[in-house]
Amino acid sequence: RIGFEVLKFEEIVAYTALSNVKSRAVMERIGLLNQNEDFHHPELPKDHPLSLHCLYKISSGKCAEPLLAKT
């Protein structure tokens, strides 16, 4: 919420290696949505095991109360 309410961002984006399941879970838990726009990281060879990345984002109008901690 700081990104939208304090910093006034219109959109927040994040990416990680497609195989990084734990980071993807964190992104989803804080409310970011997978954009299904996988891409190869420009700094890695295409045959590198971490080359393929996935894009997550959320727009200010779509911000919901994220689940930050399980109780």
Explain what you see:
This protein has 71 residues and is an alpha+beta fold. It is built from two helices and four strands. Strands 1, 2, 3 and 4 form a four-stranded antiparallel sheet that branches. It is elongated, with a radius of gyration of 14 Å. The relative contact order is 0.28.
Report, as a whole number of angstroms, the end-to-end distance: 20 Å
Low-confidence stretches: none
Task: Report the β-strand fraction as a percent range.
Answer: 25-35%
Report the radius of gyration as a whole number of Å.
14 Å
Coarse structural class = alpha+beta
Query: Helix amount, in percent?
Result: 10-25%
Mean pLDDT: 89
Q: What coarse outline follows from CA principal-axis ratios? A: elongated
* Secondary structure tally: strands: 4
Largest pleated sheet: 4 strands, antiparallel
Order of helices and strands: HEHEEE
Number of H- or I-type helical stretches: 2
Question: Would you kindly provide a brief summary of this structure?
Answer:
This protein has about 70 residues and is of the alpha+beta class.
Features:
alpha+beta, 2 helices, 4 strands
List the helices and strands and how they pair.
Blueprint: H1 2-6, E1 11-17, H2 21-29, E2 33-34, E3 39-40, E4 52-59
Antiparallel strand pairs: 1-4, 2-4, 3-4
